[in-house]
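=== RUN LOG ===
request id: a7f3
mode: sequence -> structure
chains: 1
length: 426
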Amino acid sequence: MLNLLIAKIARREFARTVSFQGERRPAPPVCRDQLPRLLYLHIPFCERLCPYCSFNRVIFDEGLCRSYFHALRKEIRLYHAAGFDFRGVYVGGGTPTVLVDELEETLSLAREVFAIREISVETNPNHLNRPTIDALKRLKVNRLSVGVQSFQDGLLQKMDRFDKYGSGADIAARLKEVMGEFETLNADMIFNFPSQTSDMLRRDLATLVDIGIDQVTYYPLMVSDYTKGDMETKIGRVTHGREEAFYRLITETLQPGYRFSSAWCFSREKADAIIDEYIVDYDEYAGLGSGSIGYLGGTCYANTFDIRKYISDIDKGLLPIFASRDFSLRDKARYDFMMKLFGMKMEAASLFQKYGPWAWPGLALDIAAFFLVGALRYRSGSFFLTRRGGYLWVVMMREFFTAVNNFRDYCRREQAMLKQDGTSER
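=== RESULT ===
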């Protein structure tokens, strides 16, 4: 009951926060400081499309993809000219390694113009081949994140991934071959599929432990309005009744060999690892590429979702912003509070320093409620998530990313209408 209540409140609040209607701007804020920021690069091309994915993605077309990478490098230079610098790069998709020579040129440019210290790249199991691995190592990629989702052949078939990437045994063998090639090898997994059972989840966990994978990111299945129909047809209807039990099984199985890097990311006990949730490690991030979302200077913005328009805008020297929204002081404080605690710990003083004492009245009820339900504890000037709090934060983050996915749906509809009307986005 508590989980449902938190989900309902979070859904309402996040839908409000990422509502961008009527707030379009031509560009994100100009950089006026040297805060550590992350550069997110979105590559929207895939050989085939998975039914549950709400990210901006299209079927791979080599000519269009090469034009896109060319435009992406121009966009990197536009941010450099605006005074931005970045400490880390995260490349997501889509499938970032779909043209590894273009990716190599793009990341080389990022290293040339920014003070990059760490690089994380997503890929799929069929790209775990020698040429791709060698190219990523030349670029000094720190973390390779592989989209696995499950090792169960039945689930892979329903996800339309079995024919693309092979059986669960094939994928496990490829992961074993790549172990040790990068500082961190991460497996992206999903739990709470409609037909998934506890035994299936246990077998997946056993496979991960047997491989000795450096890091596991276990996302709850998230469905947007855009993917709901396709999901229900191919995979089944998603409910959340078993979600907490599945989450408990994951955490109990992976500990003590793994530690929490975030509420749904688990890393082996070694040097600090990069995680998917760059929102935890960086207060701000720039989103580059078609359909990418960024957060700079308290402004959240989204690039155009039309790939050809993205390329056209960049060729004109324009940042291809489709929509943006300035967060209120309360929204910024609550955003930071949630994102930092998603990383399991938040220093109270850091929030006070950023927003002053006026941040606390807006958070007081939230903090009191989470203490009452046993989600938080306070020690030595910091808030910590309890074991119970870890799952509640998973619920909130699931709703946050669902709201973001629904915003993507809004952008797609708006752009389709504008194109139909023959009007400009600007």
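=== NOTES ===
The first strand starts at residue 37 and ends at 43.
The mean pLDDT is 86.
=== END ===
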